Amino acid sequence: MSEANAMESVLSALNEGDRAEVAKFMKEEQARANMNSTSQEFTDMCFKTCVKNFRSDTIDNTEATCAANCINRFLDTNVFVFSK
Amino acid sequence: MAFGFGKGTESSSSALGSSADIRDRLKKQVQQEIQTSQATALISKISRSCYSSCIVDPQSSLSAADQECIQNCSSKFLQTFSVVSKEYVTRLQSEKRNLSQ
Fold this sequence. Notes:
Oligomer: heterodimer
Shape of chain A: elongated
Number of domains of chain A: 1
Radius of gyration of chain A: 21 Å
Distance between the termini of chain A: 53 Å
Strand content of chain A: under 5%
CATH architecture of chain A: Orthogonal Bundle
Largest sheet of chain B: none
Strand content of chain B: under 5%
Number of strands of chain B: 0
Number of helices of chain A: 3
Number of helices of chain B: 3
Order of helices and strands of chain B: HHH
Largest interface: A-B, 46 and 41 residues
Mean pLDDT of chain A: 94
CATH topology of chain A: Helix Hairpins
Shape of chain B: flat
Low-confidence stretches of chain A: none
Number of strands of chain A: 0
Helix content of chain B: over 70%
Largest sheet of chain A: none
Number of domains of chain B: 1
Order of helices and strands of chain A: HHH
């Protein structure tokens, strides 16, 4: 049985209310997954910029502040570029 | 994505369980698969980033210093991810508030 057929038969075994709930759930999970992926990309970028000392295993206040600023300034940059 | 529902059995409602049962199992499975794929992606990023930072002159094996650097780097990366995600969510929420005013 192909994956598409398997999914179809699982969904058809759900009543209308449950099918709607699953659809809503999928949408929310998708949104959450997108947020997570975007955060991962931002982390990649900001980690490179902000964290350069690996003699310690914990980020200090300077690095944490830098990371927070990094993401905010990136979003500001996006807005700015878009507006010009 | 394999659903593992009624493997080797007829796909009738009674074999798969009640609608609520199927719904809950499906949700759980989807959630687990998403989490696994996100964790894998994150580990991949950490590997790449920490290799870049720590292994500047590749030798014939990872030295103790290399391993310590990678470990510290991985730990710091995860903490940075936490900071960045929180800040991102906070920022989006405040933008949303600004738009609705």
